[in-house]
Design goal:
single chain; 247 residues; alpha/beta; Arc Repressor Mutant, subunit A; 2 domains; 12 helices; 5 strands; 11% strand; elongated
């Protein structure tokens, strides 16, 4: 049942459409309204009474934090929606002010759409315990990948979140990466096994090239460092699973 209602305030039409597609495809989420500016977003929030608001910080006519302030001071809203703020800016002062105002998540662009969707569900109370466990796992995995240096806007980022989360729940899939795991990821993302493999490989390569040799040595032992090559998809996924399960 689609019972988590979302108002989306994003001036970038391409990014907005990407998020809309993810919301429409999710069994728990429903798009209550979409806006390109803050004033329209506020009207939608008042009229639709959403559970979650996803707003850009520097949206026209009324910026994201002003929108949050109006939500906090509203006498019309029956309950205050949870808010996710996105921005290309990430100064400590802005993030601290956002959190102080009650923003649930402050997410820096570019981001992965699935990461936003996971957090939207995570902050909503309308989910069962099993779904919450999966969503929490995806959030933890996303944070892990970002710390490793994998950009959230790469398709491989989303593929890796699904891959690692699936294997954390069922480690036997580690022995069937090509025949079992990739097809399962492809089905969920509307892709193909070949694209999944290439996307994951590219994401790891990008992060690997960004890291210094010192960082690589701190992350991988001699088995990878001695060859001078990046870890394979399976090596990376297996290590991520081990680290996350032991954390």
């Amino acid at each position: 049942m689609k019972d988590i209602r979302i108002v989306l305030a994003e001036k970038d039409a391409i990014l907005s459409n990407m998020l809309k597609m993810k919301i429409d495809d999710d069994e728990l989420l429903c798009l209550a309204g979409e806006a390109r500016d803050g004033e329209t977003a506020w009207s939608l929030i008042e009229s639709t009474q959403p559970d979650v608001v996803i707003t850009e910080l520097l949206i026209p006519k009324m910026d994201g934090l002003t929108l949050v302030e109006k939500i906090n001071n509203s006498k019309i809203l029956k309950k205050k929606p949870k808010v996710i703020v996105t921005s290309t800016m990430s100064s400590d002062s802005i993030v601290k002010e956002s959190i102080k105002m009650g923003v649930s998540y402050f997410i820096v662009k570019p981001y992965n759409a699935e990461c936003i969707i996971s957090r939207a569900k995570n902050i909503s109370y309308k989910i069962d315990e099993f779904s919450k466990t999966i969503i929490d796992s995806e959030t933890i995995v996303s944070d892990y990948l970002i710390k490793f240096g994998i950009p959230g806007n790469l398709k491989g980022f989303g593929y890796l979140v699904t891959a690692i989360t699936e294997i954390i729940q069922d480690e036997s899939m580690m022995y069937g990466v090509t025949k079992i795991l990739y097809p399962k990821i492809a089905k969920r993302h509307g892709s193909t096994s070949v694209r999944v493999e290439k996307g994951i490989r590219h994401a790891i390569e990008v992060a690997w090239e960004r890291q210094s040799e010192e960082m690589r040595k701190g992350y991988y032992r001699y088995d990878v460092i001695s060859t001078g090559k990046r870890p394979t998809n399976s090596e990376f996924i297996a290590k991520a699973v081990r680290e996350l399960k032991s954390a």
